[in-house]
Amino acid sequence: MRKIFIPIIAAVALTSCNQGSKLPAIAPDIITEKTPNDTDDPAIWINPDDASKSIVFGTDKETNGGVYAFDLDGKIIEEKSIKNIQRPNNVDLEYGFQLNDSVAVDVIAFTEREKQQIRLFSVPDMKPLDGGGFPVFEDETDVEQRLAMGISLYKSPKDSSLYAIVGRKIGPSGSYLYQYKLGSDSTGVSSTLVRKFGSFTGGKEIEAIAVDNEMGYVYYSDEGECVKKYYAEPSMGNEELACFGGELFLEDIEGIAIARYANGQGYIIVSDQQRGQFNIFSRKDNSFVKAVNLSTLETDGCDVVTVSLNDTFPNGLFAAMNDEKNFYFYDLKKALDLKP
C-alpha cells in the first residue's frame, strides 16, 4: 500500500503564530487530586461489574514516581496505586490477557524509563506479572537508546495474542519502535521481541503511541512531523501507511486517544501541546474533523472510552494530563461533542 498524505484543509483559521488556543475553553467535569511530581499519561479501565467503579490510571514520572489510580471523582485510590517506580512514563491497558487455559485477567503495562524496562500488572488486584520487569531495547549498546518512554498494548483479533509496542527517548529511523509478544505458560509471563519498525525524522522524539485493535493500526506521534500510521499485526509488514496532521500543530504532536464506535466509526484525538488544544481526526480515513480547547496546560497523554460510566460521564470519559500534577476528566459529549 502506498503512503497516504492527508491534505490539510479547513484548519487554517485555527493556526496561529501565538501560543495558546483561540478556541472557547471547555472546563473539565472533574479535576483529580495532585500527584507528587509530574503527571504524564492516563489509561482508563472500565469495571465490567459496575462501570461507576471504573479506574483511571495515571503516571507520575520521576525517580520516586508511580502509577496512581483515581476513582471517577478524581480521588486517589491508594490501595490500587503502584509507587516507587523509577520514572514511569506512559501507560496502557488491555482486557482479557490469558494467563492459562482457565484464567484471563485485565492488565496495565507501563514503561519504567530509568530501569530500561516495561512493567505488567493485573487489574484490579494490582499484582505484578513480570517478575520485576521486562528489559527492552537490550541489543542497543547506547544506554540513551534504551530509555523507554511510550507504550501501547495490542491484542490481535487473529489469535488474541497480546503485544506491547514500546518507544524510547531516542532511536534510529526505521527501528525506533520495538514490538514484544507477551506470553504466559506454567513458568510465568514472558516478553519476546518480534519486530522493530517506525520511521523517525530525528527532530524531537516519539513518545505517544496508540493502537486501534479492531482496525489493526498503530499510530504514533513523530513530534516534529506528523502522526504516523502502521499495521499493528507484525505479519502485515513495516510499511508506513500514512503521515497526517502535521501542519495543524503549533510545535509538539503529543498524546493520542482513539474513540471507538461500532463499524469502524470513531475518532483519533491528538494533543497539540503548546497550543493547549486537541486536534480530532476521522478514525476511518484520518481526515481532519475539528479542534477543541479543553483548558488543559501542556498536555502529554490522554485516553478515552465511549461507554456510559455514571451520571457525571453518561456519554463516555475523556481523560487528559494537565501540567499542574493532575488530570482533567470530561464527559465525552460535553467536551468533544463527538457522534458515533
Report on this model:
A hairpin with a 4-residue loop joins strand 7 (104-112) and strand 8 (117-123). 48% of the residues are buried. The chain is globular. It has one domain (12-336): Neuraminidase. Helix content is 1%, strand content 45%. The model is unreliable at 1-18 (pLDDT under 50). It is built from one helix and 24 strands. The two termini are 28 Å apart. The strands form six sheets. The chain has a four-stranded antiparallel β-sheet with strand order 1-24-23-22. Strands 2-3-4-5 form a four-stranded antiparallel β-sheet, with no helix packed on it. With 340 residues, it is mainly beta. The longest helix is centred in the last third of the chain and has 5 residues, at 332-336.
Q: Please tell me the total number of domains.
A: 1
Q: Span between N and C termini?
A: 28 Å
Number of helices: 1
Q: Could you tell me the radius of gyration in angstroms?
A: 18 Å
Structural class: mainly beta
Arithmetic mean pLDDT: 93
Beta-strand portion reads: 35-45%
Strand order of the largest sheet: 1-24-23-22
Give the biggest beta sheet: 4 strands, antiparallel
CATH homolog superfamily? TolB, C-terminal domain
Shape: globular
Give the SSE string.
EEEEEEEEEEEEEEEEEEEEEEEEH
Flag low-confidence runs. Answer: 1-18
Q: What would the CATH topology be?
A: Neuraminidase
CATH class: Mainly Beta
**Architecture in CATH?**
6 Propeller
Organism: Flagellimonas abyssi
Protein name: Phytase
Pfam family, one: Phytase
InterPro entries: 6-blade_b-propeller_TolB-like, B-propeller_Phytase
